[in-house]
Amino acid sequence: MNVTEAINISLSSIKANKLRSFLTLLGLIIGVMTLILVMTIVQGANRYVEEKIADLGTNVFQISKTPLVVTDFQEFIKAQKNKDLALEDAEAIRNQCTDCVSVGVQVQTTSTVKFGNESGEDTSIRGVTANMAEISTINIEDGRYISSFEEKNASPVCVVGRDVVDHLFPHLGPIDKVIRIANQEYRTIGIAERIGNVLGQSQDNFVLIPISTFFKDFGSRRSVTIHVKTSNSSQLEPAQAQARTVLRSRRHITYNRPDTFYIATAQTFLSVWSSISSAFFMVFIMISSIASIVGGIVIMNIMLVSVTERTKEIGIRRAVGARRNDILWQFLVEALVQCMVGGLIGIFLGFILALAVRQFTPFPASVQIWVAATGFVLSTLIGIFFGIYPARKASGLDPIEALRRE
Question: Which domain holds residue 390?
Fold first, then answer.
């Protein structure tokens, strides 16, 4: 039995019975399409999040009163009872941590920002120290950052994000304009570069003001977040150990008790995202696997029907010299070709849907060749696995009995 001949017979069968072939392959198509769609979205999201989190800096870590990433709600509620972090804690770390190059502080709330008749809702108001300019990844597009002099004198100045500019100054330049936040006036001295969205959530709706001004206008009884920068990523762990020692000493925490603060790095966020995306990936892989298995079972059943319909053909082939292996390969190749055709259709539809998702939704999708290869290999394995039984049944038919069959 020539493999090329078997492929031609299989393709001819698909062409001759288009509707039946489509319904036969539908389960496999849906399974492969789902697999391709999920893999492209998850891979795109992973790359997207890695790029965004990499912007936090590989040599920067943050210390906060509560977890910066909430994975356990009970732990978050318990952390509310922790002692607030204060400017004095940041100063102690700055003085005692030899591996800490720069120590900045940030505190935030939300409020409405107004300019004339325009307003922006739920804007993040962040009080920052002047040296956050060298620690954070916020770059200034126009104007300048907050200075040490303005921090020291609690000057009413601010740096605004691109969303605030778009909402309040659609037709004006914001530099030197006075905006109102919680009935206080602030002069705009800088505009931050656009950061963009993270999974549909804008990162540009913020206003930066000197931390001293923040405490004066919004109250000082708030826990701050301490940002620490090291000289390079290799100094990150030693610096964290030193900062932890300083804070535990200041809080009189004994060696057998846990920290009453939380330290987070870019890797912390990546680990949490990895666990979330892995769970999401596994759920949809199970769904697509079920669809693929159902599709494989349908193909096996249709192949069994085909064996019954072509029993006399099998008898004639055996009578003119075809061996059992020839019949086995003929039906196995036919099942394999059908699954490969279904797989290719599923891959094509999966990529089309992935591109549509990337175009019309906030979810990123990364179209990669290895994803297509995975879908093709899956459909091939399904063809082999579910094609073996019908092929063995066909090859095991007695030629004499097969010739007698009407």
Answer: 3-51+271-404
pLDDT per position as a tens digit, 135-191: 888 889 999 999 999 999 999 999 999 999 998 988 888 999 999 998 899 999 999
Q: Report whether 227 contacts 132 (CB < 8 A).
A: yes
Specify the number of domains making up the chain.
Answer: 2
Q: Are residues 164 and 277 in the same domain?
A: no
Q: What global pTM score does this model have?
A: 0.66
Parts of the chain with a pLDDT under 50: none
Spatial distance between the Cα atoms of 202 and 121, rounded to a whole number of angstroms: 13
Q: Is residue 236 part of a domain?
A: no
Task: Using only the alpha carbons of the chain, give its radius of gyration.
Answer: 32
Whether residue 31 contacts residue 295, with contact meaning beta carbons closer than 8 Å, is answered with yes
Structure tokens at 374: 């995975």
Q: Measuring CA to CA, how many Å separate 261 from each of 68, 80, 145?
A: 10, 10, 29
Does 306 reside within a domain? Answer: yes
Residues 110, 224 within the same domain: yes
Q: Which of 196, 228, 260 is the last residue of a domain?
A: 228
Q: Three-class SS of residue 200?
A: coil
- Kindly give, in sequence order, each residue whose CB lies less than 8 Å from that of residue 207, ignoring residues fewer than 6 positions away: 113, 123, 124, 125, 126, 158, 159, 160, 161, 164, 179, 181, 186
Q: What is the pLDDT of residue 52?
A: 61
If asked whether residues 33 and 128 sit together in one domain, one would say: no
213 and 112 within one domain: yes
pLDDT at position 39: 79
Q: Which of 107, 374, 322 is nearest to 224 (CA)?
A: 107
39 within domain boundaries: yes
Structure confidence by residue, pLDDT tens digits, 184-222: 999 999 999 988 776 567 788 999 999 999 999 998 888
List all residues 6 or more positions away from 129 whose beta carbon is below 8 Å from its beta carbon. Answer: 104, 105, 106, 151, 210, 211
- Do 291 and 193 belong to one domain? no
Q: Do residues 213 and 109 share a domain?
A: yes
